Amino acid sequence: MPSEAEAVAALRENGFAGPIALAIVTGTGLGALVEAIEGRISLDYSEIPGFPRPGVSGHGGRLHRGTLSGRPVLVLEGRAHAYERGEPAAMRMPLAAVAALGAKRVLLTNAAGSLMPKAGPGSLVVLTDHINLSGLNPLIGEASEARFVPMTNAYAPRLRAALRAAAEMEGLFLHEGVYAWFSGPSFETPAEVRMAGRLGADLVGMSTVPETILARFLGLEVAAVSAVTNFAAGVSGGDPHHAETRAVAARAGSDLARLAAAFAARLPET
After folding, report:
1. How many CB atoms lie within 10 A of CB 108?
2. Residue stretches of the chain with pLDDT short of 70
3. Which residue ranges does the record assign to the Nucleoside phosphorylase domain (predicted)?
4. Residues 111/123, Cβ–Cβ less than 8 Å
5. Which of 133, 199, 227, 245 has the fewest CB atoms within 10 Å, measured from its CB?
6. Whole-model pTM?
7. CA-CA distance, 38 to 60, in Å (whole number)?
8. What is the pLDDT of residue 184?
9. From CA 44, how far away is CA 53, in angstroms rounded?
């Protein structure tokens, strides 16, 4: 397994060094954000030692560097999911490399199913918290004391405030909600969705939570936004499938790109 140092060295050699105001991870069908990056340079994950190869359609598998609203950013176009190889820490190397290159904060995006009747397909939801229903954790096996990561404010309040201000500036309505992580790859059953709702979930999905845990372990501030692609199973007639997820995410992608650009412009300096 290639080391973090090898990955970082390869990225520096390819022009990815320098200040980074924000790292962004894009979810299924949300790669349109890449088009908003100015002065973009790109590298396939396959060319970066230790980076995973995403195995889900709608995840490009490329790392980009450039500027967004004049701020230097790194965009990880696509992710590897825990369900692809049974590895909840699948995104550890990319996030560790991003942190080693100097990023201090990350915006995670995903496609999710909604339990909220008022937040239907096409809605954007900023995450306030999460529930891990997968039985997995990306830090299992980590030997250092740093594995005991506090998660009280996993989604940084000041970054959530910046996202709300960015949405208002762009005329976008931004819902708030709690995201429940199921391992996938099968979609949730109506009974599982009812259970998640009773536990306090507003959204369900198959990603983001392990990345949030890893990012906090690595010292990164985290913000996260879900693009609602469907109602969850049994909610308002919801019967999700992957083709629907990709199609609706692509339509929501332009709103998410606007939100991310306005968010980058309003980032705290420190």
Report:
1. 27
2. 28-31, 55-59, 236-250, 270
3. 22-264
4. no
5. 199
6. 0.93
7. 18
8. 92
9. 9
pLDDT of residue 27: 81
Q: What is the pLDDT of residue 78?
A: 87
pLDDT of residue 254: 84
* C-alpha pair distances (Å), 158 with each of 23, 211, 264: 16, 19, 13
- Cis check for the bond before 185: say yes or no (omega within 30 of 0): yes
Task: Give CA–CA dist 28/250, Å, rounded.
Answer: 8
- Ranges of each domain in the chain: 4-265
**For domain 4-265, is the CATH number 3.30.565.10?**
no
The tokens for 104 are 């201090």
The encoded tokens of residue 154 equal 């996993």
Give the pLDDT of residue 56.
59
Could you tell me the two tokens for 238? Answer: 């919801």
Q: How far apart are the first and last CA of the chain?
A: 34
